[in-house]
Amino acid sequence: MDRLPESLAALTFLAPLDRALAQLLASEANAGPRVQLLAALTSRALASGHVCLELERLFSDPDSLFTGADDASDSPEKAPQPPSAQLAPWFAGQTPASLAAALAAETLCVGDGNATTPLVLDGLRLYLLRNWRMEQALAQAVAGRLAAGTADIPATLPAQLATLFAGNTQDPDWQRLAVALATRAPLQVITGGPGTGKTTTVLRLLALLQENALYADDGRALQIRLAAPTGKAAARLSESIRKGIAQLPTSDLVKRHIPDRVSTLHRLLGAQAGTRRFRHHAQNPLPADVVVVDEASMIDLDLAHSLFMALAPNTRLILLGDKDQLASVEAGAVLAELCREASTGAYSPATLAWLAQATGQHIPQPYHGQGSPLAQQTVMLRESRRFASDSGIGQLATAVNANDPETALRLLEAGSEDIAQLALAPGAGELAGLLTGSQGSYRAFLLTLAQPPATACWAAGELTTEWAAWLKALLLRFDDCRVLCALRQGPWGVSGLNTRIAAWLQDAGLLTLPAQAHNQWYAGRPVLVLANDYGLNLMNGDIGITVALPAPEGNGVVLRVAFPEDSDTGVRLVSPARLANVDTAWAMTVHKSQGSEFGHAILLLPDRDSPVLTRELIYTGITRAKSRFTLAGPQLALLPQLIARATRRSSGLGAQLDRLWKTP
Ligand SMILES: Nc1ncnc2c1ncn2[C@@H]1O[C@H](COP(=O)(O)OP(=O)(O)OP(=O)(O)O)[C@@H](O)[C@H]1O
Fold first, then answer.
1. Is 10 helix (H, G, I), strand (E, B) or coil?
2. Residue identifier of the C-alpha nearest atom 2 of ligand 1
């Protein structure tokens, strides 16, 4: 330990920012070598998605703490030695408890959260102060929403539920149970895999709440706000809400008061250019009676904290998401932490009795328990309506989630109408055939691109209906197929694949690339927006298609990027010159694909293992497929070890909640 700080340079897995933090603590707070090292490690763990540094894990499984989330590389040169080997000399002869004791003695740098110290030690968890505060505040907000206890059952509730769920014959009917529970507290969590009916359920809940509000004595409609973490997820929810409203068994008045506009969460909270602060916060809460947030697995600690702080105490929050998907790119695994008891249910006798009275439903014994107050407000939807029980995609996703590699391999090897595997040679030429083939490929998209309308493109400076419809069709067709990479860098990562795919498409006569290699812009280039741009109203994750349009004035053509938009034309055109932060999107990372779905999802595994290849990544990749899934790669034999590797993000949210509930 005494050789620090110079020797921090020897820890190659640290980033300059981690070392800078250590140096700052040394110069400003007189931090000793041990605190410097642990501060740098906390900072590195944070960059890998962990809210805190768990000292026990630092000893038991350090390599799992220091892997990148979205910036993984498959070049082995980057990490000459695993972190465990590099750290071994520093921690020889120590234990988690001895480290904690030594840290606690450094009172200028390390505190218990009451004083303003740069680091907070909470048991055997070490935090940067800001994260500890956010986690505390979030836990208190969650617990606060559940503190009021159980409301009485409104006399009308059983009949309303019976009408709304008249078509559901399942026993228990988890959708009905979820709606019933959501009426009794200002927080409800609904988790479930793809197509388990999360949107359908929340629509019925909104109908029920709005019905009660509109037909009450004062007849005031509830202000309902819908949001999702990315623009793409928001557009998808908007589309399924639009379709679902028509089928609701409720009056036209109620239907008219259910919104179908879904904003991004950042926009809902009032993101402002040039600052991380949102317009809505505890002193200026969101004006809303009900807030629904979909794809909640993508919400990191920071955003979850901002969301909870922006809600007035009586605003009802409904979180929807799939707890088994990849966690957020930034630190935290909020939905997974909130859903710790979702699989087992753990419904208390009081909840069981309440539900029996409200719904007439009896939850089977395996789901009984003495769960936390949050478990009582959480429902896991368990039956996929999108995938029949014999669908390959559904079965494969279930096997991966259940850590059952034998079944997953058997399904893939046998193949079926909707799943296949494709072993690739180093040149990956087999993939070229798949991407230019007749179905579930980029062919239909590129053929649509080649056939713009023969009519005029512009009328009075606006796109004509025909051209707008063509652009919308183009955007839709692009979702026929997508290559999802596990990694970003290297030959099997997004960067390598995008170049190869464009060349294959050109070889097949489907695409014309610019003669000059440095010119990245060409008609047909799909682009992915990499960061929120409030000036252009484009969100991280939005996808646009580059098109050549007749110039609005004069001769020739201009390149524009078409993005979907919730407007009359349904599309918006942006000049490529204004798009500084975009990437080509023939291939994208599984992380970036969250919240999207594709007709045919092709998940590409690299040629060697990496700690970022996890069960959640495989599951998320599979569940992006609507009708066809292909697992491709040069080393498909890696699959069982990837399925076995479950992600565990270090966080204290669950522990903070447990503590709050134990000490009323
Ligand atoms: N109780 C039900 N009875 C019949 N069909 C249902 C029921 N619930 C959902 N569905 C149908 O199943 C499909 C998937 O439902 P929904 O879109 O609500 O699921 P989801 O969990 O929100 O899906 P996603 O994974 O896309 O978020 C839809 O076509 C929906 O109409």
1. helix
2. 168
